[in-house]
Amino acid sequence: MHTLHIGKYTLGSRLIVGSGKYDSFEMTKAATLASGSELITVAVRRLNITNPNEPNLRDTFAGTNVKFLPNSAGCTTAEEAITLFRLTREATGIDLIKLEVIGDTQKTLYPDVLETIKACEVLARDGFTIMAYTSDDPIMARRLEDAGAHAIMPLAAPIGSGLGVQNKYNIVFVREAVKVPIIVDAGIGCASDAALAMELGADGVLTNTAIAQAQNPMMMAEAMKNAVIAGRLSYLAGRIPKRPYATASSPIDGMIQF
User: What's phi and psi for 164, nearest 5 deg?
Assistant: First the structure.
């Protein structure tokens, strides 16, 4: 029930976390372990996981069950992302990737989905397992799946905004549009946001800022862990229909009359 399958990979947790905005590698590790996540994404253009002669996040996580998910944050074209991932795989052997190509680098950090699709087609042929960051557009989600993406990652709101899920219907539409897992990514601000995303049918949630910049990152990490589990259970259980008027918890049929 809690297991998440992405391509050839199986994860015991449906929560994926980020590695940015922490004060130290040790705090990154502590919060990640508290979250129960088995997958941490790393912007390989900004954070070292390849150079053994400098402080290296992979060394910090040695001996844990946490896998690394290189991402292409900072790339603005398909060509940049393709080159980055080929070099990263050569250096690390990692072929599970988070593909993101940003179209607006100044204000919204919204993805350039057309460039993302171009990169996805090439990287899929190269044998990568691709998790593709995208807008909450079901049409583009389907095109990314057709291009070879193994998971679709629609944004909930702009990266780092903490606004939560801004368009519940689009998350549902994306879930209906594709067969691969969908991971709600970007904009999660607190545990209830993560639970809502899961209740809408998401297969998982990725969050970074909500944990790293919380007043108590360890406590928020644990809250996110429990929220994803609770949201998944709620989705599988099936909520009651919404009704405009009250319905008695105890039926009146057969009630004793005085």
Answer: 75, -170
Q: What is the CATH number of the domain that holds 225?
A: 3.20.20.70
- Is 3 inside any structural domain? no
26-35 pLDDT, tens per residue? Answer: 999 999 999 9
pLDDT digits (tens, 9 = 90+) for 94-137: 999 999 999 988 888 899 999 999 999 999 999 999 999 999 99
Q: What is the set of active-site residues?
A: 98
Per-residue model confidence (pLDDT) at position 133: 97
Closest to 16 measured CA to CA, from 233, 160, 182, 215: 182
The boundaries of the domain holding residue 225 are: 12-237
Number of domains in the chain: 1
Q: Where are the alpha helices (DSSP H) in 44-106?
A: 57-60, 78-92
Gap between the Cα atoms of 131 and 179, Å rounded: 13
